[in-house]
Design a protein that fits this description.
Elements (H helix, E strand, L loop, with lengths): L1 H14 L30 E2 L1 E6 L3 E9 L5 E13 L9 E10 L2 E5 L5 E5 L13 E2 L7 E6 L10 E7 L5 E8 L3 E2 L2 H4 L10 H4 L14 H9 L4
Antiparallel strand pairs: 1-12, 2-3, 3-4, 4-9, 5-6, 5-8, 5-10, 7-9, 10-11
Length: 230
């Protein structure tokens, strides 16, 4: 099993040399799309990268891994950290990642922390063994992480919740970020793929929530997210 995991991660690492900015999210033909799926359209810009920023906690970029055909990998997303508040950079403090989605206006949180594989941002050299927690003191500008989605392609997860803990397991803070790919225009993002109105708490997580982008071009909307790609 460890050999299979290492082979899979090594293959994915080779994809990291490709651009994180793509045009479409792959979908299995013939499947029924739920409201949490992304509606792929050449007329609607998609965000393949995103950034969370919370004062007093951290900044973090998140991006799809895009294959040679321009499709987003369904199994992993990659993240890298910018600033970490010094108040949380203490011995034994750590982060965990959880995923959640909204189906029929009900929040569904996966209580199992996501597996993370560290890798060197310059060389792509990966760790062979995943972890479910990352010590904040070990984070640096040279290291990124691949998060295993274990996604349900019919009902994909939409949000990653990053939780900070003290060394004794006490939660001290958390922040949510939309998982790429998602509709880059906040106007498009108001609606689920089945045409129903998207849950307000999801709309509020969109980085352009509340902004009037009616005068923005396709390229302007796309580039507002491409700047977070790595």
């Amino acid at each position: 099993m460890k050999t299979q995991t290492l082979i899979k991660v090594t293959v994915l690492i080779s994809m990291l040399v490709l651009s994180a900015c793509g045009t479409s999210k792959s979908a299995n033909s013939g499947t029924t799309e739920s409201e949490s799926r992304v509606e792929v359209s050449s007329e609607k810009p998609l965000a393949s990268c995103n950034q969370l920023s919370k004062a007093g906690l951290m900044t973090m970029n998140i991006a799809n891994i895009i294959d040679a055909d321009g499709k987003a990998n369904q199994d992993f997303v990659k993240v890298k950290f910018g600033s970490i508040d010094s108040a949380h950079n203490k011995p034994g403090y750590y982060l965990k990642f959880y995923k959640w989605r909204v189906i029929n206006n009900a929040v569904q949180l996966d209580s199992a922390p996501m597996a993370a594989y560290s890798y060197n941002l310059s060389t792509g050299s990966p760790s062979s063994v995943p972890t479910t927690g990352i010590y904040i003191s070990s984070m640096n500008a040279e290291t990124g992480y691949m998060l295993k989605l274990n996604d349900d392609l019919k009902n994909p997860y939409q949000v990653i919740k990053v939780v900070a803990y003290m060394s004794d397991g006490t939660m001290i803070d958390h922040v949510n970020v939309l998982i790429p790919q998602f509709l880059a225009s906040p106007e498009d993002y108001k609606y689920n793929s089945n045409g129903t109105m998207r849950a307000e708490l999801l709309q509020q997580l969109h980085p352009l929530y509340g902004q009037d982008v009616s005068g923005w071009s396709f390229s302007q909307i796309q580039e507002s997210f491409d700047q977070y790609c790595f």
